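ARCHIVE CARD
CATEGORY: sequence design from structure
SOURCE FIELD: tokenized fold
FIELD CONTENT:
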């Protein structure tokens, strides 16, 4: 940062909804919305005004849909950098060729996150035949261009046992960081029963904690509870230091928490952040009463609001997978 600020403010920006894949756990229900360059510039201006008002440094997570389908992605990365913002690209990796990797490097992207949901057979069952090989080739090209590469693993029942194998694979091909998080699907919509149970999550967390201790994964968000409590307590920043903007202008506190707070076509981002009842409610949500006696209450603040909302319809309740509350940690067989 060039000047002293009050920290980072992240904007997860879905610049386009079209995608070349149809993953089994995708939470997107629209594949048509698309931001023009003029709209991108306008929203970037709004984001800059928000950062100035809060005296914070901007961190853009640019995604979609698939962001590499957008013709103005590289322009946006360069423009964000010229304004002093830091930017990352979150992608499925399948559209990264030599030209794209070189352009990402030239734009000064801070890192690129590629989704891998297991080794080849399991990943392809989730994201489509051939998608693993194309994503891995994209990762190799990013590494050759000395771009920091993060792999994101979305944990669900079909890939529950894949994390250790994927961790070794990522280490071997030069990935800089591997992290995982739980699939978020509202209970009534989870017809395929992809969501982890509390026991599944606790088992996976302990497994990941071992990998974490060996430096093979980084699981701050997914291990916000007992398994990594000394170093990895995570606090949800939705509505506080995080907002999401979709390609149709919709604003949410977090993409995984589907509470609509406004639209940048109708009101500017700063006004939505400071005045939206929905954002204020998420931001000011108290630590759940069930958690107040926990020694990590103020650090964790109840866990992942998006998981609580998906399972119960109420984000102010504690994370239903917390092994401290559910007492599931004693039932785990590793």
């Amino acid at each position: 940062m060039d000047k002293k600020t009050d920290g980072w403010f992240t904007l997860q920006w879905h610049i386009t909804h079209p995608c070349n894949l149809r993953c089994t756990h995708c939470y997107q229900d629209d594949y048509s919305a698309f931001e023009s360059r003029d709209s991108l510039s306008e929203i970037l201006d709004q984001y800059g005004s928000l950062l100035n008002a809060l005296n914070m440094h901007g961190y853009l997570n640019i995604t979609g849909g698939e962001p590499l389908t957008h013709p103005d992605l590289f322009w946006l990365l360069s423009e964000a950098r010229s304004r002093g913002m830091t930017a990352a690209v979150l992608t499925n990796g399948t559209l990264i060729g030599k030209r794209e990797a070189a352009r990402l490097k030239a734009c000064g992207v801070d890192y690129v996150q590629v989704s891998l949901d297991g080794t080849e057979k399991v990943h392809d069952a989730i994201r489509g035949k051939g998608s693993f090989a194309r994503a891995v080739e994209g990762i190799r090209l990013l590494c050759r261009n000395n771009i920091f590469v993060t792999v994101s693993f979305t944990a669900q029942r079909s890939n529950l046992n894949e994390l250790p194998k994927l961790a070794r694979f990522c280490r071997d091909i030069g990935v800089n960081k591997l992290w995982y998080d739980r699939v978020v699907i509202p209970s009534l919509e989870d017809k395929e029963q992809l969501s982890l149970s509390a026991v599944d999550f606790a088992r996976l967390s302990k497994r990941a904690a071992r990998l974490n201790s060996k430096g093979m994964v980084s699981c701050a968000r997914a291990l916000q509870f007992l398994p990594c409590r000394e170093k990895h307590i995570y606090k949800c920043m939705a509505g506080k230091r995080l907002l999401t903007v979709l390609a149709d202008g919709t604003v949410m506190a977090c993409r995984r928490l589907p509470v609509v707070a406004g639209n940048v076509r109708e009101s500017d981002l700063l006004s939505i952040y400071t005045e939206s009842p929905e954002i204020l409610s998420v931001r000011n949500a108290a630590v759940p009463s069930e958690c107040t006696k926990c020694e990590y209450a103020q650090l964790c603040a109840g866990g992942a609001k998006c998981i609580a909302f998906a399972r119960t319809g109420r984000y102010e309740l504690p994370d239903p997978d917390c092994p401290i509350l559910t007492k599931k940690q004693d039932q785990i067989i590793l």
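CARD ANNOTATION: Confidence is low (pLDDT under 50) at residues 226-230, 328-334. The beta strands are 8-14, 57-63, 86-91, 111-115, 149-155, 177-182, 242-245, 250-254, 257-263.
SHELF: design records, drawer C
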